[in-house]
Amino acid sequence: MLDIDSVGASYGNVQILWNVSLSVKKGEIVTVLGPNGAGKTTLVKTILGLLHASSGSIEFLGKRIDGLPTYRIVDMGIALVPEGREIFPRMTVHENLLLGAQSKEAKKTKDDSLERIFQIFPVLKERRKQLAQTLSGGEQQMLAIARGLMSKPKLLIMDEPSLGLAPILVQKIFKAMQEINEKGVTILLVEQNVHRALEIASRGYIIEAGKMVLAGEWDELLANEHVKKAYLGL
Ligand code: ATP
After folding, report:
1. Cα(39) to centroid of ligand 1, in Å?
2. Residues 157 and 228 occupy one common structural domain
3. Three-state DSSP class for residue 96
4. 94 and 182: one domain?
5. Are residues 35 and 135 in the same domain?
6. What is the pLDDT at residue 206?
């Protein structure tokens, strides 16, 4: 579904990503793990066309997307749940959700999408008339994910959804992710919470200082000495 081949990316003169390759197959949950500043968000921005790849290629469903404007990439079926949620605090939950349905297709099916989303996150239905700023951190994360789903993505990219949440809420968010995946949405999950991420992902990649240093099935990664030492504190 997604094929990233030897991608480089820079902010001005500073190169951040070096020869990054990664693939996601339809139906998978794949995770990208790495420490602060490794380049995870930069990779996500490059996939979405918010930052241009300076080398390499990115294909989605067999078509080159590097070089396309972000709105075209979103229309093709990729949605981003950004780091820090970026919801609109003074708009209602319902209004925030509608902002996720921008394409013609998504607008046409928005009522249907809302119904499906409220099944996954009933609390958003209860609170749909409330201002988003009145939601708890976990609920705001649910709202950010739900807004991403409003565009009816084939691939949902989530950038550190567990950041700043209490363990119980992290558990809820990860459970919802599995449910969303079971309903047919492929997921690329960027995380620092290695344990949790490898619990739900089938495969993972480790990025450090802008380079992919390791890739493997979840059990291979959990058994890897470097992963154990650097990420699991074992
Ligand atoms: P975190 O978990 O902290 O979000 P990350 O792995 O997502 O980390 P990035 O946000 O991709 O890391 O940052 C990678 C590097 O790029 C860091 O050294 C960061 O300082 C730098 N960087 C990020 N955004 C910019 C920018 N707009 N201009 C210049 N440098 C940037």
Report:
1. 6
2. yes
3. helix
4. no
5. no
6. 95
Pocket probe for ligand 1: among 14, 16, 32, the residue whose CB has the most ligand atoms within 8 Å is 16
Residue nearest (by alpha carbon) to ligand 1 atom 10 = 41
Give bridge partners of residue 190 from the DSSP assignment. 32, 159
Q: Is residue 228 part of a domain?
A: yes
Tell whether 201 and 95 lie within a shared domain.
Answer: no
The three-point CA angle 186-26-106 to 5° equals 55
pLDDT, position 13:
92
Report whether residue 45 contacts ligand 1, using a CB cutoff of 6 Å. no
Backbone torsions φ then ψ of 186, nearest 5 degrees: -75, 145
* Each residue's pLDDT expressed in tens, for the chain with a length of 234 residues: 999 999 999 999 999 999 999 999 999 999 999 988 999 999 999 999 999 999 999 999 999 999 999 999 999 999 999 887 888 999 999 999 999 988 888 889 999 999 999 999 999 999 999 999 999 888 999 999 999 999 999 999 999 998 888 888 888 899 999 999 999 999 999 998 888 898 899 999 999 999 999 999 999 999 999 988 888 877
Ligand 1 binding pocket includes 39 (Cβ within 6 Å): yes
DSSP for 103-167, written as a single string: SHHHHHTHHHHHHHHHHH-HHHHHTTTSBGGGS-HHHHHHHHHHHHHTT--SEEEEE-TTTT--H
Pocket test for ligand 1, best of 42, 43, 81, 193 (most atoms within 8 A of CB): 42
Q: Which atom of ligand 1 is nearest to the CA of 192?
A: 2
Closest ligand 1 atom to Cα of 190: 7
Domain of residue 224, residue span: 1-77+153-164+177-234
